[in-house]
Description:
The structure is a homodimer of 367-residue chains.
Chain A: E1 16-23, E2 26-33, E3 41-45, E4 51-52, E5 55-56, H1 58-79, E6 89-96, H2 99-102, H3 104-118, E7 122-127, H4 128-136, E8 142-147, E9 151-156, E10 161-165, H5 177-193, H6 200-210, H7 216-220, H8 226-231, H9 234-240, H10 245-265, E11 281-285, H11 293-306, E12 311-314, H12 319-332, E13 344-345
Helix pairs in contact in A: 1-3, 4-12, 5-6, 5-9, 5-10, 10-11
Domain ATPase BadF/BadG/BcrA/BcrD type (chains A, B): 19-291
Pfam families (chains A, B): BcrAD_BadFG
Region (Disordered) (chains A, B): 344-367
Amino acid sequence: MTRPPAASGAAGPGAYVLGVDSGGSGLRVALGRVELPGPLATTLCAEPVRTGPGGIDAGHLLDQLLPAARELLDRAAASATDDAPTGEVAALAIGAAGMATLGDRLRSELPGALADALGVRRLALAADAVTAYAGAVGQRPGAVVAGGTGMIALGTDLMEWHRADGWGHLLGDSGGGAWIGRAGLDAAMRAHDGRRGGSPALLDRLRAVFGPAEALPGLLYPRSDRPAVLASFAPEVAACAGADPVAAGILRQAAGHIAEAAAAVCPTFAGTEAEAGEGGEVALTGGLFKMGEPLIAPLREELAQLLPGARVTTAAGDPLTGALRIARALAAGDLRLPRHPTMLFVPQEHGGGQRGGTAVRDEPRTG
Amino acid sequence: MTRPPAASGAAGPGAYVLGVDSGGSGLRVALGRVELPGPLATTLCAEPVRTGPGGIDAGHLLDQLLPAARELLDRAAASATDDAPTGEVAALAIGAAGMATLGDRLRSELPGALADALGVRRLALAADAVTAYAGAVGQRPGAVVAGGTGMIALGTDLMEWHRADGWGHLLGDSGGGAWIGRAGLDAAMRAHDGRRGGSPALLDRLRAVFGPAEALPGLLYPRSDRPAVLASFAPEVAACAGADPVAAGILRQAAGHIAEAAAAVCPTFAGTEAEAGEGGEVALTGGLFKMGEPLIAPLREELAQLLPGARVTTAAGDPLTGALRIARALAAGDLRLPRHPTMLFVPQEHGGGQRGGTAVRDEPRTG
């Protein structure tokens, strides 16, 4: 089929790309140039995008994204010293928490709206785990474990995505921050009750952080951010792990769960256990791993058992960096991460800068 | 000190007692006679008593309790065939979920209000675990495990109460319905992801009950009754336990947790483990144990290990029966269960039937 020249091939020199990360702490936007590494500038819109009955609110996202993007573009144009940039936004990638299940409105409304408002020609709408992958691993095969309050593992052989866990604090997120904090508080309450498995050290920490143990249910259950409250206790578990065998056992169990999730999604190893040979890359990313050695040391051991030969790395880039990478790959016509209707949605291309411009078919996936 | 004769000693023949059980499914009221065993009649007010910022709403409880009690008294008077009852309510006992932490308004408002409205002379306000104890064990030393969506163990040597767990689905309730259901759903999601520890049988049950696995988070998390949703899956775990080792392992672990809680509170054994000799009574009560042998068989084994010699019984009476028993013991002046400011609160006695009657000191605890 024939294509209008404006929409085909790689973007021209001087074109911009935008990466967006939408999560619980707000909307972060990064501006970059197609041919330069790294972001030129980033900005934060501190109000998290609303989720309504129809899913993530596309209008609310645009209300924050468009002024932020325009300001970044204006600043870049004013300070550009090399060959004058065109001002064109060749590609934009948005990673959002809940994109897979709550992203229907984004997928239906954003392509037209962003073409109209910013002249965006190429767009990617990604699950936040995919931008975490792109930030931490890039466009190579491998696996990422994104850990924070929750925990999800995502892997790809560049043919398809494999996901494990990330099911939230009541159905999984095993080994994540809320899981570790909850296990620590359980051990503290066991000590309070005189039940087996209790940790007096963790009970001391519970009292120091929350007050009397018997008052904790009354503090926790009325909150709407219960997983975050649980996760706030995870660093206390890590702090006790050096001297307290119960705390160390919790982190060992968490490490086991994280390794199980990584093993389920890592290419080469997916579905098999303890197979020798050349391993893939497993990148650890997110606030969970700021806990450091008390968690990472047992995790390296568990991964060595389940995925012998795998290279364990700590994240090269965050999800915002990943979104910018995806945008740059889209603009350059070499997106190698697998497209997917909800995980990594790349809609049909819009004519750049032409309001109501002709939509053309997206180019076939490059290998 | 001297007492007005009306308030001293045991209640006269023909006097009534009332037992009340306030929980998530409403307010149940039982009417009995001091000198006769069992209830004469019971009734259910289906609207659960509201909990507000000040705790359990005393006015809302009275709005339901008073008409129900008057109707029971009228019916009893009309159908009485023996020596004419006096119509006097010698004692009333209320067991309520949340009484210990949310019962301040009940403790301050009910004694006067019930003396004024029903002429109640003696009142007990008990945690629902205490009425469960009274129903299942009576006034003997022992321990009760009350299991439903949650799980709590309560024991007494008749000197003081010992409580273990009952901390809710995020801090404990280990081995209860929500705990078992959650563990079952975790194993199902593991099978879905290809993680270690998964159960294809439980994944089949998840799909049969809730639909596609990946849609379950969207069904569960918006609900306000998440623990009940989790607990609704517990019978599926029990149904799979005969053929599925993962499901059987979950029930074995639940049995271990329940036995740990019982061991922490059972007199003779409290604080010690696996000591030979004459054991106390451990009564199992509540909907959890309707699961039957898949849970009770491993529980008997775990209890035999942690509390060798303990007699394990299934509940003789429910919490409503327990409330009526406490009321009858109060009326007869032989309440042997230990009083406690929040677990089993027995306020100063009000002059029977005298509006604004003189409050006198409660009699000393009988041994």
